[in-house]
Every structure is written in C-alpha cells, then in structure tokens.
Amino acid sequence: MRVIRCEGLTKRYGSTVAVDGLDLVVESGQVFGFLGPNGSGKTTTMRMLLGLIRPSSGRAWVNERRLPDPSGLSRIGAMVEEPAFHPWLSGQRNLEVLALHGPPLPNPDGVPAALERVGLTAVARRKVKAYSQGMRQRLGLAAALMREPALLLLDEPTNGLDPAGIREFRDLLRSLAGDGMTVFLSSHLLSEVEQVCDQVAVMSQGRLVEHGRVGELAATRPRVRVAVDETEQDAAQALLSAWPVRTDGERMLVVDGADGREVNQTLGRGGVWARQIRTERPGLEEAFLRLTLTEEERDASSAS
Ligand SMILES: Nc1ncnc2c1ncn2[C@@H]1O[C@H](COP(=O)(O)OP(=O)(O)OP(=O)(O)O)[C@@H](O)[C@H]1O
Question: Where's the ABC transporter domain (predicted)?
C-alpha cells in the first residue's frame, strides 16, 4: 500500500519556496528516510502531511485518503517537535492526560502497552523531570503509539540524543517496521538514516534531488579522475562535457557519474590519450553532501 503520495506538493512563504513540486511515494512497512540539510523543506513537508499547514499547490494522500480528509490523518502518529510533558507527573500519568484529549484510544490498555513497546515500563511511575533525553524521546514515541497509528512521522527524532540513545531509538524503529508500521523519519545526517532506513529521499532547497534504496545512492554516482597532458586539458574537458567535469587541485579532471571505460573511450575517440585514469566511489556521506550543496557552494568547492 502507498502510505504517502505527493504530487507536485508545493508550499510558498512569500518569495521563499519551502517545498517545490514534491513528487513522492512511500510504500508501507518500511523505515523511510527523509534527508536534507537544514532549511531544505523537510519540516514543512511533514507539517503539510499532518494537515497542520495548507499546501500552496499540489496534492497529497495519506493512508490513501486525499488531504485534508481527516480519516487519512486519524491513523498517523507524529513527533514533529520535541515532545512537551508535565515534568512533575510520571511518564504514565502524562500519557493518561494526553489520552483524555482527542478520540478514545483504540485499545483501553493503550497506555501501558505503548510504554511497554518503547521499553519504559520499569520507569513508568517515575516523574518525567528525572527522565533522560532518550527516555523523553521514547515517551514521545509512546504518546504516538498509544493510538496505534499505521504511519509514524518523526522529525529529527534523535536530535540531542547520545550515541547509545540513538542506537536504542534506531532498534526501536526497526522493530516497529517489523510489526508492519511505516516510519517516515527526517534527518540532516545521512550516517544516521543509512543504518535504519530501507529507502531514502534527499531534499535540497525544497526539491527532491534523489530517491532510492540507501545502498544505491552512492553507487549511482561513481567518479573518475583523469590525468592528460597539460596542453590537452581544454580539449579533454570539452570532450567530456556530457558529464559534470571540474579540475582538482592537482590538475586532474574529475568526472562525476561516469565510469573509467566510458571516459577512456570518449577521450580516445577525440584523439586525447589519458596518462592515468582512476575510478572512485565517494562514501555515502560525501555523495549526500554533493547532492545537497547549493550551486554556489558547488562552484566554491570545485574552485578550491
Ligand atoms: N512559517 C514560515 N514562514 C516563512 N518561511 C518559512 C516558514 N516555515 C519554513 N520557512 C522557510 O522554508 C524553508 C524550509 O524550511 P523547513 O523548516 O521546512 O526546512 P527543514 O529541512 O525542516 O529544516 P530544519 O531541519 O532546519 O527544520 C526555509 O527556508 C525556511 O526558512
């Protein structure tokens, strides 16, 4: 089932286009990573999917209901801001208070069941002010889970967690997906999502710039470094202009998204012989950074 579908989803704030024509499909039962640097439009997209703000144009469906149909929204759990709890009440009491707002829980034992699911049963009666950051995040998750959502939207949920907290949270998300829930998780850190997500979408300046399985992101973008005689640099650059080409600090040509054989053939056909050809695969982190650099940043980094 397609849990999320967006077609040309757009949000403008005056002259700022926060989300620009987003087309996206998320299938059920997976952890989906929504990646992008700060300001790339992730939160705005999630707020539109939650019906909190109206799109300027485009359409979106959640749980196969066209927004803003509230029946689509009723099966979404979300953590879009840092969850706010009453510090002097216990974790359990906080959830009970939240359960009183909105429609009744689908399961009368929803509160203890959700606390159990996130591993907080042992500290359920402790005041929230004594909780660690990781416990608070898990309590936020329990608040969403007690309504048994089909889709969980989490905006940068591991912000402020230590490495152990991040690991625990990751394991929890994987086990929720194992139970058939869809988790849509935003982050500005590729290293974080690559360990937990099945698929990722990469946003940059409000636009979707990449979408696919995590392992394919970097693999689709090998890079070739070529050395030619100095007198042939310009000719080589012109021959290779079908790819993005730049020179590195050591006067080698850097050809993005090509393989060595193609580069070699193209040069040879134009009568330029490479002195050296090396194929590289940038790490995922680097691939992500390159995808999300603005044009000015890209120009600045290739000039250096
Ligand atoms: N209410 C608003 N009014 C005006 N501009 C806004 C508003 N909300 C977001 N923006 C702008 O829209 C763009 C996208 O912001 P958004 O918060 O969606 O990005 P993000 O990827 O979630 O980043 P972050 O991780 O920093 O939250 C930014 O340029 C932001 O300044």
Answer: 4-230
